[in-house]
Design brief:
The complex is a heterodimer.
Chain A lengths: L2 H18 L2 H21 L3 H24 L4 H6 L1 H7 L4 H16 L1 H13 L4 H29 L6 H28 L4 H17 L1 H11 L2
Chain B lengths: L6 E11 L2 E12 L2 E6 L6 H9 L6 E6 L2 E2 L9 E4 L11 H11 L7 H7 L15 H14 L4 E5 L7 H16 L3 E5 L10 E6 L2
The chains are: A mainly alpha, B alpha/beta.
Chain lengths: 224, 206
């Protein structure tokens, strides 16, 4: 009975599940690509404007894609009783939910990172900003999953929690959006972005340590 | 053989749901080798009591003790297993993957996965996706979880649902065996259980 075995078993199971129901991976990714490709069509032939708002477009789309994928984090576990079994495990619930959140990020956050450079070039983002864009996504999207998990854990027991979920979670996403968007913008103009990156790292570390605890507590409330 | 010092005691338990008192001042004591059968009509609080035992709900009044200690301070969660209305199995995973997951979340018990599958007559179903199993087979699979993990107390909510006659007899045999080995069981059932050699306590909640 080792905690690390349980931790990796949860990650593994969630990845296998995601592979078997592919729409869960495809939905947020498709949404991300579609929204970004629609912007140039909507704005028209104004490459400078597009270039200027590219960081914002990419980050807002990533944020909405993350929101869209959140519900799948605990929904099926709640519906089929796996969540009850998870909570009854003698292992600390917060560690097990952290495993679930990591698996969720690997399935929904990581694909965004892979397509983001392509879409950034498509929006005319300067090449020297691409690295920073990837770095902010790498640091920021796990925070979206971690903070989102708190909201999902609180609303998974409600029949129509979608609206409340966005109201709960979106305000908490704003700091990530501000610092990440700003970092990419500054990088585009060639200014140093250390401060923004440091703050993003701090937010990520804090979320990593602090988010699993309220998620575990909220899940216990939700299965009641 | 496990030492038969395990006991589960509830004192002065009450459950109030939506301003309705489901039960109050309920007390019981269960020791190793015993079965506690909760009876009562629909909505009388059987499932609520089981969920209180599992810790999903707090009792509105009263306390639970495992081996003399308050449940939260004891090894309770390492020594119990719960099969509820919801099977707790993933239909997109195979039989084997589901059982391996249960095993990873708990510690290994008396039987290996193969032995447990043959006990519940699911040998040869290892690589079958659970969504293709029948309701009765799914139920037997979720009960197989009880065999592969280390546990003393089984908490079963209507374990006989969707099982055929042989299935019911099978589960009763497993239950009798578990009690003979010093385990204990709390269950609800509409079915009358047939356990001739086991000390069965009954609580009627209605």
């Amino acid at each position: 009975m080792s905690l690390s075995r349980a931790f990796f078993a949860v990650i593994r199971r969630d990845l296998v599940l995601a592979l078997r129901r592919r729409s869960e991976i495809a939905n947020p990714l498709l949404f991300f690509i579609l929204v970004i490709t629609l912007f140039p069509l909507g704005i028209g032939a104004q490459p400078h404007l597009l270039q200027a708002i590219a960081p914002g477009i990419i980050w807002v789309s990533a944020l909405l894609a993350a929101m869209l994928s959140l519900d799948s984090l605990f929904r099926s576990d709640f519906d089929d009783g796996s969540l009850e079994q998870l909570l009854l495990s003698p292992h600390p619930t917060s560690v097990l939910v952290l495993a679930k959140i990591i698996a969720h990020w690997l399935v929904t956050g990581l694909p965004l990172l892979i397509v983001a450079p392509l879409l950034a070039v498509f929006l005319g983002m300067p090449n020297h900003a691409l690295g920073i864009l990837l770095l902010t996504l790498l640091l920021g999207t796990p925070v979206l999953s971690l903070i989102g998990a708190i909201g999902v854990a609180l609303t998974v027991g409600l029949r129509r929690g979608g609206m409340i979920l966005s109201l709960l979670v979106l305000p908490l996403y704003v700091p990530v959006l501000i610092f990440a968007g700003n970092a990419v913008q500054m990088a585009g103009t060639g200014l140093p972005v250390d401060a923004q990156i440091n703050i993003l790292i701090a937010i990520l570390l804090m979320a990593l340590v602090l988010a699993p605890l309220p998620v575990a507590a909220a899940l216990k409330m939700s299965v009641n | 053989m496990r030492p038969s010092i395990h006991s589960l005691a509830g004192t002065d338990l009450s459950c109030i749901r939506d301003d309705r008192v489901l039960f109050e001042q309920l007390a019981f004591e269960l020791v190793a080798g015993q079965v506690l059968l909760l009876e009562g009509k629909n909505g009388s609080g059987k499932t609520s009591l089981l969920r209180i035992l599992c810790g999903f709900r707090e009792p509105d009044v009263g306390a639970l003790h495992w081996c003399g200690d308050a449940v939260k301070d004891s090894q309770f969660y390492a020594q119990m297993a719960y099969v509820g209305h919801l099977d707790g199995i993933k239909k997109e995973l195979t039989v084997l993957e589901n059982l391996k997951m249960s095993l990873a979340l708990s510690s290994a018990g008396q039987y290996s996965i193969d032995q447990a599958l043959s006990k519940v007559h699911l040998t040869g179903y290892d690589d079958i996706l659970v969504q293709t199993l029948s309701a009765g087979q799914k139920r037997r699979l979720s009960l197989a979880r009880l065999l592969i993990t280390e546990n003393v107390l089984w908490i079963l909510d209507e374990p006989f649902t969707s099982l055929d006659k042989q299935g019911i007899a099978l589960i009763e045999t497993l239950m009798a065996e578990h009690c003979a080995n010093g385990g204990m069981i709390v269950l609800t059932s509409h079915h009358d259980i047939d356990l001739p050699d086991v000390d069965v306590q009954r609580i009627n909640l209605s």
